[in-house]
Structure formats: C-alpha cells, structure tokens
Specification:
With about 140 residues, the chain is mainly beta. The protein has strands at about 10, 15-20, 25-35, 35-45, 45-50, 55-60, 65-70, 75-80, 85-90, 95-100, 105-110, 115-120, 130-135. It has one domain (about 10-135): Chondroitinase Ac, Chain A, domain 3. The radius of gyration is 14 Å and the shape is globular.
C-alpha cells in the first residue's frame, strides 16, 4: 500500500484514503472536500490525525497510511499500514460497546468512553496492509 502523496484523496467507492508515515516533517492539508464535508489531515512519521468539519475522527501514533476509510452508523472500516505497531484512536458513539476485528479476526470488545473515543493497538509491518473493522454490538 503506497503512501498518499497528496495527503488525502477521495476513492471511487466513496471512501477516503489519507496519511503518509514516511514524511520527516509534519505536513497538513485543510479544507479538503469529500461528500459535503471538509477534512483536515496532519501527518508524518510521528502521527497521523484526521478531522471532519472541525471534529476529531482518527489519530494514530506513530503515523500511518489509511485506505478506504468508511464510517457508518454501525462502526468504521479501513485498511491501515505503517512501519511500526500503532495506537489508533477513533471517534465513535459515546458509551457504546463495539467489537474490534483485525484482518477478519475478532480481537475483543471495547467500550467507548463518555466522549466516544475508542483506542486500539494494531501490529503493523511495512508493506503489509492490515484490515480493521469496528462494529457496534
């Protein structure tokens, strides 16, 4: 999975792809329009962060590349790649129980906190995309 040279892009399937963990210096792009929303991306080797309409959506430490990021009422689905294991934080529904799947395997249930944040660790190897799916129980 290649890095996103433009930092963020719309995909033909209606999803978005973003991030570049190979950048040495922090890069950002704001006011990227997709499906009527405005996105802001900040990314480099230390962190990748995405906001939609001024609100937090995704963050990984260290930085990652995310492809085909899709959010719906039941959860979120995307492919992620990085050169190191990453801690991923997502904005979901407040105080809600979710099941987390990594490469099709259920890795456990997680409850979001009062602000709706869910934090999951993902083992990553450069050049090997990892499928993450988080579904409301």
């Amino acid at each position: 999975m290649p890095v996103i040279e433009s930092l963020i892009r719309s995909e033909e399937d209606g999803t978005i792809s973003f991030g570049n963990y190979k950048l040495e210096n922090k890069s950002k792009l704001q006011d990227f329009e997709h499906a009527g929303d405005l996105y802001k991306i900040k990314t480099f080797y230390e962190i990748t962060k995405l906001e939609r309409n001024g609100s937090f959506v995704y963050e990984s430490v260290p930085g990652t590349v995310v492809e085909h990021f899709s959010v719906n009422s039941d959860g979120v689905d995307f492919t992620v790649e990085g050169d190191k294991d990453a801690q991923i934080t997502l904005q979901l529904e407040d105080d809600t129980d979710y099941e987390v799947f990594v490469d099709g395997v259920a890795v456990g249930g997680m409850m979001t906190n009062m602000s709706g944040k869910l934090v999951a660790g993902v083992e990553l190897n450069e050049g090997v995309p990892c499928q993450v799916k988080i579904v409301r129980r």
